[in-house]
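cache lookup: miss for this entity combination. No prior model stored, computing from scratch. Input as submitted by user K.M.:
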Amino acid sequence: MRIHDLPTPCLVVDGPTFEANVATMSAHRPGRALRPHVKAFKATALARQLHTAGHDAFCCATPAEVVGMAAVGLGADLLLANEVLDVRRLHTMVASSLGSRITVAVDSVDSIAAASSAGVQEVLIDVEVGLPRCGCPVDDAGRLADEARAVGLEVRGVMGYEGHLMMETDDKAARVEAAMAGLLAAHAAVGGDVVSGGGTGTWDTNTWVTELQAGSYTLMDADYARLDSPFRPALDLLATVISVNRAKGWAVVDAGLKALATDHGPPTIDGATVWFCSDEHTTFAPADGGELPAVGDRITLRPGHVDPTVALHDRLHVLHGEEVVDTWDVDLRGWDVRRV
Amino acid sequence: MRIHDLPTPCLVVDGPTFEANVATMSAHRPGRALRPHVKAFKATALARQLHTAGHDAFCCATPAEVVGMAAVGLGADLLLANEVLDVRRLHTMVASSLGSRITVAVDSVDSIAAASSAGVQEVLIDVEVGLPRCGCPVDDAGRLADEARAVGLEVRGVMGYEGHLMMETDDKAARVEAAMAGLLAAHAAVGGDVVSGGGTGTWDTNTWVTELQAGSYTLMDADYARLDSPFRPALDLLATVISVNRAKGWAVVDAGLKALATDHGPPTIDGATVWFCSDEHTTFAPADGGELPAVGDRITLRPGHVDPTVALHDRLHVLHGEEVVDTWDVDLRGWDVRRV
């Protein structure tokens, strides 16, 4: 199959770029020094490529992602790096993943109680390191670890995500060091052998974690690419020009808000200016007096934010040049946790 | 089942508000004077409610929506109000929907050729009336109708969507009239008995179309609600508070960019200020010194834009008070057209 055979809109991955991104990260953080985050791509077939590259521990954002990874035999060490209060879902996750090792992030007595009642055996204490999101205060980490152990949970260590520093360019190393000083202080109080954190934006500056929670580097956000980074965008949205207004100088493709996320801004099109996206359309005009395309032409749009864009699609088509060499199901979508 | 039994994140519809929206529109534009647009809700179960309210003609944005509507017996008069160049998909759509009446929008010789080769029998000439998107120039409409008839297509009339005027508040009636003057000029050249256009934002100002293409009024965008309109938002995202930072004054729920669209801005939470959404989280703080919620509390977020939000979910739960009285599958998602 070739690119021209693909119905549009659909997502395409540039195979060589993806492979180069994986190789670069795996050389820098081999094996368990990296815990790839599956929320970035939601496809067990892509995760399997990372497994082949030497990584057998993964991060998940939802119980559904954990169950899906366990179901395909990628459950050697799965971290649910998120607080979940739904005991039924946690219980189904545990019961569906026997034989897998599952660790869950906790940051309160409530999340500890939920994990414990659901039959979770291992946890990490999630620590707030500056990003206004989940995580307990540094000073509470030791007490929470004691509470977790008191109800029979094994505490493997700590996690803390410095998400507010991913796109930082000023004084980045020092700011990451300061954030991680908090995490290390929490770790001293908690114990265990895991210090988990970081991401694609701090892949080379965060030298304190024992495992880096990066996922975006695989398909690479166009937005992240503003950083001085060896990772290159590998994901595009293939679309067909369905209407051209020659009198007024614009063209329209069959892909819009339902096919790509715009929370990092509108998509980009080489040689064109994007005017706006609506549900099933994007309107654009050639830049600098270039030529309008013809109706039926195929073009690619580059979405600004990979993670929520992938979550809109059923599959990813992998290209080597114009040839479709593989198709990966986006099989970790949604929140339903079904016993498997 | 009651609201507290629903796993989160999930979409909930306030039943009485939805019913009032439907009744208001059906009273103003009964029967075929309204052609509800299914792209707004992508659920045949919701479409069936509109059928019960007297509407048996519908708009679709994709061949997949047409096939899904035909498959459940709602195919009396389906308009694919969008240009489609993919002959294979159009052909599968036609072949899967025998017994249904299908009309397709065309705005170029290429879209006419695609419809004709796929076995489509009826078309509307799509006319640009000011929105920079699909549609031929007014002056080309008659010539395109002749070309369509020359290849054996029945031309039922014209459509033109004045989407740029939906949120207009200054001089709206006059601007809608001017846009529709173009559509009526095109209609005079084209012939046929259909003049299709308009939407929720021009439901009472567009008195020129024979059928109004409105869909958003059913669940109603929070954004549209800025207009002076009798339609009220009926869609919320139910979420669970999973983390509270009392020291710094914020809380986090288990719903973010993968559960709601932010192209019309971040969601709103009653009594709170939303800080930001990330993939699976939204961080917020109480407004005006209010109290933080507790971990495990359930709250609702109101998404700014209904259409792309619904497209992120598998189902819509209908509430009367706290009781879940119905669950509608969002069965028209995606772009795959399978022969049924």
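stored under new cache key. DSSP finds eight helices and 15 strands in chain A.
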